[in-house]
Amino acid sequence: MNKKILALSLVAGSLAFAGEHWNVDAGAVSMKYLSMHASARTAALSGAGVADATSASDISRNPLAMNGVAEAEAGVNHIIFPEYTADDYTTAYVALPFAAFNYPLTFSAGAEFLGYDGIEGRDEEGFKTSDYGAYAWVLQAGLGNRDKAFNWAFSARFSQQTIDDETAIAVLGDVGGAYHVNEYFAFGATLTNFGYMSDYDGEKETAPMALQAGVTGILPIAKLFSLESEWNLHVSADAYRRADMQDPEWRFGGELDYMQTLLLRVGYAARPDTEDGVSAGIGFNFGMITFDYGYSPKKAFDGGYHYLTLGMRF
């Protein structure tokens, strides 16, 4: 009962904390790459499924992903951007389950790199100057439990962002909790990117702190229709709020799972501050190897982002 109360309090408190007193100006947060989707699975679900974190590839954005790790896994996420945006965004991750005093835990670590060269420089009067580059890198580590009912997780990260010859750093944290009512229903919430960020070019900057809370239902299609093969449908609905958003973003996602071998995904995000979008993706598990692909449209860039994930269990 105490765990139920704690989980309910986390969700309710998160939504309350996302009220009008938490606002900064629209677009005023920095290091926004820390709030971008990193894994192909999350991107395909439009960011939904905070309570259904079943893939180690999600640990860089959802600390609760550590709770679903049954085997050690290492992998890489990569984003292919449209032309004239960034050049590379690569995330590496490792998740290591272990037990301490018969208590199941998971340790995670990750690194990220974002780079963009050849940006056209302009002076204060608008005249062209020399080209410059921008890049950012991140290191993080976390710990979470693997209890079947109540899950907790936290992680810490260090990030550095450099644009031309100006640099900013941030020391941030993530924390999350989830409660699995039974094998078919769960809810959870996370608070991400809270902590310290240095000034940038003499100006005060704000980290992209965000709250997300959601529910997931799992429909056992095979049992309902007496199928010999195992089919499950995961349906998630989440509310997401970043510090510079005036209204929450509503995220919905569905994942059709065939025996943890083939996974078909689709998502929809209703974004009050930018365009809505439908995303989709697919996942394959070949023994120890996992591969995921996701696509998220970006109308402003006349294209979309392609997400690739390659993982190996060991």
General description of the model:
The protein has 314 residues and is mainly beta. It contains 3 helices and 14 strands. It has a 14-stranded antiparallel barrel. β2 and β3 (103-119) form a beta hairpin. The radius of gyration is 20 Å and the shape is globular. The mean pLDDT is 85.
User: Taking strands numbered 1, 2, ... along the chain, how are they ordered across the largest sheet?
Assistant: 1-2-3-4-5-6-7-8-9-10-11-12-13-14
The sequence of SSEs as H and E is: HHEEEEEEEEHEEEEEE
Distance between the termini: 36 Å
Mean pLDDT: 85
- Regions with little confidence, pLDDT below 50 for 5+ residues: none
| Outline | globular
**What count of helical segments does DSSP give?**
3
* Helical percentage: under 10%
The main β sheet shows up as: 14 strands, antiparallel, barrel
Could you tell me the number of beta strands?
A: 14
Strand fraction equals over 45%
From the alpha carbons, calculate the radius of gyration and give it in angstroms: 20 Å
Quick take:
This protein is mainly beta.
Summary keywords:
314 residues, mainly beta, 3 helices, 8% helix, globular
Q: Secondary structure elements and their pairing?
A:
Layout: H1 2-17, H2 40-44, E1 73-80, E2 88-100, E3 103-119, E4 132-145, E5 150-163, E6 166-182, E7 185-197, E8 210-219, H3 221-224, E9 231-242, E10 249-258, E11 262-270, E12 277-286, E13 289-298, E14 303-313
Antiparallel strand pairs: 1-2, 1-14, 2-3, 3-4, 4-5, 5-6, 6-7, 7-8, 8-9, 9-10, 10-11, 11-12, 12-13, 13-14
